[in-house]
Structure formats: C-alpha cells, structure tokens
Design brief:
Blueprint lengths: L12 E3 L3 E3 L7 E6 L4 E9 L8 E12 L8 H4 E7 L13 H32 L8 H23 L8 H33 L4 H29 L9 H19 L5 E6 H4 L1 H25 L8 H37 L3 E6 L10 E17 L9 E15 L3 H5 L4 E9 L11 E8 L4 E8 L2 E11 L2 E12 L2 E7 L7 H10 L5 E4 L10
Antiparallel strand pairs: 1-2, 3-4, 4-11, 5-10, 5-14, 6-11, 7-8, 8-9, 9-10, 12-13, 14-15, 15-16, 15-17
Length: 534
Amino acid sequence: MALAEFPRDFPITLQDGAGVDLPAEGGAAVKIGIHDASRLEWSVSLELPQNGAKKIAYAIEVEMEIPSNAFARHSPWDQLQSFTRLDGPAEPVGGDVVSIDALRRGALTLAAKLARASEGFARHCRLASSIMLEAPPSDLEPLLVVWIEAALKMVEHARARLTIPNGDEAQELLRERGLVDEYASVRLLEMLAGVERALAAMASSRHAAALAPAIARVEARVADALEREVSRRADMKYIGADPSSPDALERYLDRASRLKKHFQEVLFLEPERYEVADRIHHWVAGFVAVLASTWAFIWQIVLMNRAPSTGSQIGSGVMVLAVIAGLVYATKDRIKEMGRNWISGNVHRFYAQRVARFRAPVRRLPGRDVIVSARESIDSRTTQTPDSLNPESGATMPATLIKYVQKGQIDGARGLFEQGVRRIKHVFRYDLSPLFARLDDAEKPVPVLDAATRRVRFTNAPRCYRVPVRVRVRTRDGVILEEATIVLHKRGLDRLERARDEDSDPELWRASSKLGVGEAAATEPAKDSGLEPE
C-alpha cells in the first residue's frame, strides 16, 4: 500500500503570503489521557449552536472500575477538577489587530493549528510503520516534510500579522506582541519535539531498517528548523532550554507554563456552581421536621388519652408514660436526621448533586450570557465483575464503580459565533493519589534461571494495577464511546492502554480517525441519543 493512498482528511495548502489552510475539526471529540503522575484527564469538545439555532443538549458519562483491594475511601468531588473553555476561534483574527484579547486569540489559533499539524505528522508515521510492505513508499519523505513546512509557514505568517507593531501603540500592546512571539516559539518547539517522538517510534518499528533513510532525512530537516529557532530565541533573549543547566531547564518549563496559562485564560468561561443539597437543605429540614413533629404530636395525644384512672396505677403508669415519651422524642430526632441524610444522599437520583452554569467573560460578551448549563452527579457503588481468568466459571471479583454524569445544554451566542468560535471544551481531571497508599510495592523480586550459570537469581518485576475507564458522550448526532485502561503502580500513573490499537488494525483506525473523535472512539446511531433541549 502506497502512502499516497493514506486518508487525506487533513489536507495542507501552502499559500505564499497567505498563511496555511488547515481544516477545522468537526463534530464532537472525546479524548482520554494522563495529565501527570496522579491525575487522569478526559476532555469533551462540543459544537456551539449556529446563529438562530436552538439549544443543543448533551450528556457525558464517565465510569472508572477500581479493584476493591486497591480502593481507598475518599470524596470524589474533592478529587475532581473541571473547567470549561471556548475551543478557540476557527480562523486567525484578521485585519487591523489592535486589542490585547485579539492578539491572544490569534496566538491560540496558531497553537491549535500547530497541535493539529503535530497530530497529522504522528498519524502518518504510525500508518507508515504499520502497513508498509517490502519497500518504503516513494512519497513518504515529502509527505512527512510537508507537515514541518506547514508548521514553519504558519509561525512565520502569524508573526508577521501579530508581532509587528502598527505605528505608535500603547506599551501594554507592544508587550503583548512580544509575548505572542515568545509563545509562538514555545509552541513551535513543542511541535518539533512531537515530530521527533513520532520519528523515534518509526525507528523502533518492525520496518525500521527500510524506513531508516527517510527518517534520517526528515530528522535533518527537523534539526535545521530547531537550530534556527533556538538561534532566534537567543537573539531575542528568551529563556532557553540548556541541557547542561537544571536551573535553566526549570526556568524554561516555568516560563512555558505561564505563557500557556496567560493566553488560554482568554478562552475560559466563568463558572457558577452550587450544591443542590445546600440549596434545598432548609426546605428538606423543614419538611422532615413537620413529619417528625406530627409523629410526636399524635403519640402525645394517644398517651394523654391512656392516662391511669386509679391511684394504685399512678406509679407504674407514670414510668411507662415517661419511657414511651422518651422513645417517641428519640424517634422524632432520628426521623429528622434520617430524612435529611436520605434526601441529601439521593438527590442526584431525582435531579443532580451540583448545578453549574458557565458564562462568557464580560470582555467577550458584555451581557455575560450563559453559554453552558449543566447538572452533575458522582456516585460510587460496589459491583461484582467476572473473573478475567475464567469468566465462564461464574467466579467474580469485587470492584468499586465510580460514575460521573453531566447532563447539560449549550446555548448559541451570536457574539461568540461572529468572533469565529465554533466549539466549547470540557476538561476534567481526577486525582487518583488516594489509591497509591493501598497498592503493593511498585517492584517485586521474581526468581528466574540464569542460563549461563544454571543458578537461580532474582529480578525486579513491575507490579501494576489496571483501572478501566469509559467515557460516553451523547449528542443529537449520536453516541461516542471512548475506552481505555489506566496502568498505575505505587509511584503513580504509568501509562494508558487503549481498548483498540490502531497499529494492529489500520483500516479500523482509519475509519475512526475520519470521525474526529479520538484514536479509540466508536459511534452509535444518532437515534439512540435520546436527548432533547430542556
């Protein structure tokens, strides 16, 4: 199979002086990943309604299945971090750029295109490694190089539009243009780093020997681009990543992180959240108090009507009445407490545990319109899963299922649509560090036979645990499902194993990649979504 037959769903058009045309993503997108050593991350991107369209309803369901022997009791809400942001303008800001926010949005547009170029390069590397037969395709090197050329052209065009002053400008605007230039440099370095990682994966594939000449030439092109960018950073006196200086590396990472937060801040929506149980607490307390007081009052009337009629019965009767009255009032208090706890603990079954609204910042929309309204719930329960060694035997293993549900709707705002925004993105991070203390040692000695000496020796084997994760998103277009397995040990999260490996089945992966819903996503018919705006 020639590389020319690869799917061209991300075409690139280089236009001299006019930038680079990369198509925008379409439809919903779901991704699962590892954010750091302790936090799992999943993200969901959803389309905004077009001008005049009605609200779009959606539902997000996430399930984590933790083995009971590794589960540690914790509060799921304390471990969950979430935020919602606009997914960036579809096109760079054009014309006369005079505002700081416009500059920041333009820089984010460049960052998004560089990320997509890096993903496209990596995708073609994976396909070349998995389906090449006797000899590498003749167009392998040009097709890989065009992604690099596209990235360099995009950066050059963005710098010409966003970093060159237009006459006399305010000092804060000039400073922002300098930050745009530095951020573009950081994102270009990240893109080239992603290219190098993809080439390293090709070099370790089963076709490494046949691909070696093409890999070497592409790596030389990457080295040239990296050398020019590093030299430019030195001329601009930006913080550099000096491999011989840990302090310089630390400063570089800190600067890159601060730049990313500075520019992405313009996309974040302002959250407004409240706990449903807190809002209805007084109503629930009053309702339960009425029930408990009614119970006590009825018993009080009954006891008064059963008062002793003779003097000889007064002594024993008073004692019985006192005991019964004490039981009645104790039961009253228990009714109040149990009622409050039951309603607070089961409110998510009727409505939700938390309500969230996300508003556009005033600098984007003066009216601070509500863009997303959502209801959230987290529940955990113990379940029995079939024993993986012999599922047909009927043996089961206990596991704790943590389920997060968000049901909401997206409202289209004309102002955002006119600014080029087409999508919103939910990002969630769940901290699994409470589990680490319950896990066994990260390495355990295993006896093996030394073939040379015919003696038994011990080697350290990694001791890992696996936690399946499923993310299901329902929209008006259908259902998207992404599945993966977290591999973790006592020192933290190790890696993520996909439910399907695209390298093992290129045709399946190619079909899913065209959907734009992640590397291991599956779709179900739209008729099953069952969602309507509220």
